[in-house]
Design a protein that fits this description.
The complex is a heterodimer of chains A (482) and B (391). In chain A, helix 1 (5-15) packs antiparallel against helix 3, helix 7 (229-241) crosses helix 9 and helix 7 (229-241) packs antiparallel against helix 12. Chain A has helices at 5-15, 24-27, 50-63, 115-123, 141-147, 191-195, 229-241, 254-264, 284-300, 312-323, 325-328, 348-361, 390-407, 432-444, 464-469, and strands spanning 20-21, 43-45, 67-70, 87-90, 97-101, 106-109, 127-128, 164-171, 176-180, 203-211, 213-214, 218-226, 248-253, 274-282, 305-309, 335-338, 366-370, 379-383, 473-475. Among the domains of chain A are: 5-93, 2-Layer Sandwich (Uridine Diphospho-n-acetylenolpyruvylglucosamine Reductase, domain 2), CATH 3.30.43.10; 97-214, Uridine Diphospho-n-acetylenolpyruvylglucosamine Reductase, domain 3 (2-Layer Sandwich); 218-322, 2-Layer Sandwich (Alpha-Beta Plaits). Chain A is built from 15 helices and 19 strands. Chain B has helices spanning 2-6, 25-33, 89-97, 115-121, 128-131, 166-170, 203-215, 243-249, 259-267, 287-295, 323-337, 366-376, and strands spanning 18-20, 39-43, 59-63, 73-75, 80-84, 101-102, 138-144, 150-154, 179-186, 188-189, 193-200, 222-227, 232-239, 255-256, 274-281, 301-305, 310-316, 343-348. The radius of gyration of chain B is 21 Å and the shape is globular. Classes of the chains: A alpha+beta (482), B alpha+beta (391).
């Protein structure tokens, strides 16, 4: 589908000539997000606020041209891909921090503000914004709201929906509305909660009120080294079983460790088979005691070494291998297929074993670096897409892994979203009546199919081509995140 | 407990035609699917029957406790629990306690409330200060829709973005979109805590102390300020390890106390003699202004929960203000709170005030809320008339 000239004229009138792209060479960058599901849009527009966004939404609707919102394009489920072409609405010009109220601890920001920019602005007031996706230097708050993004520090504090108080949105049917509040509990249905994580299928947020938290009094990071993933997984259960809810509880497996060591020189011993990163925060006296209990659990499950850091520079060193892990995997293979399944914590050991078996059967190396504390796995199947049939095989292996997660009582996605990539697997979790019931929320926001098509729910026709093509296959390297 | 329903209470002054108590989920489905033109008012523990407007038309109470009873499946290692919606919070707590865990949902009269009812009304309690609203604990739900279809969303893992978050739509919807049949919840480890009380010269001073506790990262489980006679007093619950830190930043004496202070704060406004109860959701910075407006109407008791951004006032029968004055106060507060998205909810209204005061405010995006109701209960069979704007 191409955008009719009349629509392009209307878009230019709405946002200004300089803020509409439609030359093929300019559009190329917008054909994909953090995955390689691709589909070329016909135009990209950059509105500067709610009014322009509404004008764009109304124009596309009037012309029957699909509209797909887009933040920084770091998403990992194809959510920002213009599945049926049409217009991409990029939030890049809406990037002001409008206010920070240090007394109410509320920030109001535009959707294109990068996650890290909000954190840095909050830090000036002794506050922080909790959700911290690994892509936080690039990903936007608007995209985080759309995907209900998580991050390593979501174990104790929850994901985006726990930290977003309200938002101004332009709905799929072209209205400007406020959902939620600036802090107090709003009366009526929680449309804020419904909108958060709706993956840009109900509308696009143009202002977001975010909850900020007082910075922790003390933070202790532990890095514990184990001989294998099973010992580390059992330690995860033991830590949770000891009544601790750490701020973060992350696992890195041997394949990842070796790549990280070669690329980043994190100081991991060569015999390390798995590493746990455990972060505890709170007032110093309590944190110290909790750290000792966590260390005890690690030792009881065979940790060969435990490193402890409580100042920011030291802590950053311990986190280095975790944060740069996926990029370092580029040393092993040029591409990876990253999964986001969740399992009950008690099924971690057997699921990890099953993931290893599936990867071995399909002859792909698999790297695991993930949020062990909440059972959110991120197996990365490593491959070379130039090899004949490799992409198809990796997708098959990925589907098998997702199936294992679902069969263990888990879910398809813990934080990346269903997006374009996983919609066809939704029937594994939900019956027809459940999916039809979910679909009704689109009608509530006036989405008759043209607003961000082919996302979240399985759609029969017109989406198959690209979805079958690749799934969340991406090139590893700098700027690759989990 | 069954007596609460057997007595067939009036709802906003109106009497139900009947009370129906199906014995199984199958029977409940049949009752809901039967289109007999009556509005159905789902009832759990019956602790919040005074909430909201009068049911529209002929209506029956639908006691769901027997139909939605059954096994509680607790997975301690996963910190998750799946419960049929008709079990009481007391039963759920007893089960979780066996494994040293808990669910920090404590609405007024919590032990009698059912988990389904607590989530449907969405009313939190003192523990909201640390743990947020009840909806933050719902991982997945099965809901009986008005047409008798059972539908689910979410799952039973602690982190999950698979599909639309209908749990948040269902929580706080007062059963107007469906009857919660079962729910998967996130549990927490039990914590060794200490309750401390203190005197505050004013609400402003009490609020300042809450702020110091928050800024010192003491993470109070609850922080409530109560006025039920002369002057304000406060109660704070802290992890045992945080008490020394609290004493260091407190300006007042902190004195250890038993659970009674907590219970008084939790149930304030929901006693047998309370005729009028108002709850304001407001920015922390406006809580003194809100309490001042309440105070001008001489309430029997007041509560401020600054870190959870809410305040409550209650009047015992005979002490309730004149309807016109009440209506004016509610109107002015709603106007003052509108910009922040806050509101005033009349949780209990005496008959004499019913025509003067809408129990709910008119939230932003109301038209969209009406569209939600139309999408899931087009004939308006469930709790019609009781929720925001008569939905």
């Amino acid at each position: 589908m191409s955008a009719p000239d009349a629509l392009l004229r209307e878009l230019r009138r709405a946002v200004g000539d300089a803020h509409v792209l439609d030359r093929p060479e300019d559009l190329l960058v917008y054909e994909l997000d953090g995955t390689i599901d691709r589909s070329l849009p016909d135009a990209v527009v950059f509105p500067d606020g709610a009014e322009q966004t509404r004008a764009v939404a109304r124009a596309c609707r009037a012309h029957g041209v699909p509209l797909t919102p887009r933040g920084a394009g770091t998403g990992l489920s194809g959510g920002a891909v213009a599945a049926r072409g049409g217009v991409v609405l990029a939030t890049a010009r809406m990037r002001r921090i409008l206010s920070i109220d240090p007394v109410e601890r509320v920030a109001v920001v535009e959707p294109g503000v990068a996650n890290i920019e909000l954190s840095e602005a909050a830090a000036a007031h002794g506050l922080f914004y909790a959700p911290d996706p690994s892509s936080q230097k690039a990903c936007t708050i608007g995209g985080n709201v759309a995907e209900n993004a998580g991050g390593p520090h979501c174990l104790a504090l929850g994901v985006t929906t726990n930290h977003v108080l309200g938002m101004e949105v332009v709905t799929a049917d072209g209205e400007i509305e406020w959902l939620g509040s600036l802090g107090p509990e709003a009366s009526g249905y929680d449309l804020r909660g419904l909108f958060t994580g709706s993956e840009g299928t109900l509308g696009v947020a143009t202002k977001i009120a975010a909850r900020l938290l007082p910075a922790p009094d003390a933070v202790v990071t532990l890095l514990a080294i184990f001989a294998d993933v099973e010992a580390a997984s059992e330690t995860v259960s033991a830590v949770i079983g000891a009544g601790l809810v750490p701020a973060a509880l992350e696992m890195i497996d041997r394949v990842t460790l070796q790549a990280a060591e070669a690329g980043l020189r994190c100081g991991y011993p060569p015999e390390a088979g798995a590493v746990l990163l455990i972060e505890l925060d709170g007032i110093a006296a309590v944190v110290d005691e909790q750290a000792r209990r966590a260390e005890d659990a690690c030792r009881a499950h065979g940790a060969s070494e435990i490193r402890r850091a409580s100042d920011p520079v030291e802590r950053e060193r311990l986190w280095k291998g975790r944060k740069g892990a996926i990029g370092a995997l580029g040393r092993i293979a040029p591409n990876y297929y990253l999964l986001d399944g969740v399992v009950p914590r008690s099924r971690l050991v057997e699921t990890m074993r099953a993931v290893g078996d599936i990867a071995a059967r399909h002859e792909f190396p698999v790297a695991n670096v993930f949020h062990a504390g909440d059972g959110n796995l991120h197996p990365c199947l490593l491959f070379d897409e130039r090899e004949a049939g490799a992409t198809a095989r990796v997708l098959e292996a990925g589907a098998e892994i997702m199936r294992v997660c679902v069969d263990a009582g888990g879910a398809l996605t813990g934080e990346h979203g269903v997006g374009f990539e996983k919609q066809r697997f939704m029937p594994w979790l939900y019956g027809e009546a459940d999916l039809e019931n979910m679909g009704r929320v689109r009608g509530v926001f006036g989405n008759e199919g043209g607003f961000n098509p082919c996302k979240v729910l399985p759609e029969g026709t017109g989406c198959g081509e690209t979805a079958g093509h690749a799934g969340a296959v991406a090139a590893a390297g700098p700027g690759a995140w989990v | 407990m069954a007596g609460a329903v057997a007595a067939a209470p009036l709802l906003a002054g109106r009497a139900p035609e009947a009370t129906v108590a199906p014995a199984s989920l199958g029977e409940l489905r049949a009752v809901v699917a039967e289109r007999d033109g009556r509005t159905l008012v789902p009832v759990g523990g019956g602790t919040q029957l005074a909430l909201g407007g009068a049911p529209r038309g002929r209506f029956a109470l639908l006691d769901v406790r027997a139909a939605l009873d059954g096994e509680i499946e607790h997975e301690p290692a996963d910190l998750t629990v799946i419960a049929p919606a008709g079990v009481t919070l007391a039963a759920l707590d007893a089960r979780l306690a066996q494994a040293g865990q808990r669910l920090p949902i404590d609405p007024p009269r919590a032990p009698e409330a059912t988990i389904g009812g607590a989530l449907a009304t969405g009313t939190g309690g003192p523990l909201r200060t640390r743990h947020g609203p009840p909806r933050d604990f719902a991982l997945g739900m099965t809901v009986l829709r008005a047409d008798g279809e059972l539908v689910k969303a979410g799952g039973r893992v602690v982190k999950n973005v698979t599909g639309y978050d209908l749990m948040r739509l269902w929580c706080g919807s007062l059963g107007t979109l469906g009857i919660i049949a079962s729910v998967a919840l996130r549990a927490l480890p039990r914590l060794e805590t200490v309750d401390l009380r203190f005197r505050a010269d004013s609400l402003v001073e009490g609020r300042a102390l809450a702020e110091r506790f928050a800024r010192a990262d003491l993470r109070p489980e609850l922080f409530d300020l109560i006025r039920d006679g002369d002057g304000w007093r406060g109660i704070v619950r802290l992890a045992a390890g945080a008490v020394a830190g609290a004493r260091a930043v407190a300006s007042a004496d902190l004195e250890a106390c038993d659970e009674r202070e907590y219970l008084a704060a939790r149930d304030l406004g929901f006693g047998p003699d309370d005729a009028l109860t108002l709850r304001a959701s407001c920015p922390m910075g406006m809580i003194a202004e809100v309490a001042g407006a309440f105070a001008a109407l001489a309430p029997t008791r007041m509560l401020a929960r600054p870190l959870a951004r809410e305040a409550r006032a209650s009047w015992e029968a005979g002490a309730a203000p004149e309807a016109g004055a009440l209506a004016e106060t509610v109107r002015a507060l709603r106007a003052a709170l509108a910009e922040s998205g806050g509101d005033v909810v009349a949780e209990r209204l005496p008959d004499g005030c019913r025509n003067a005061v809408e129990p709910w405010g008119r939230p932003r995006a109301f038209r969209r809320m009406a569209a939600v109701k139309a999408a899931f209960d087009p004939d308006g069979r469930l709790n019609a008339g009781r929720f925001v704007g008569g939905l």
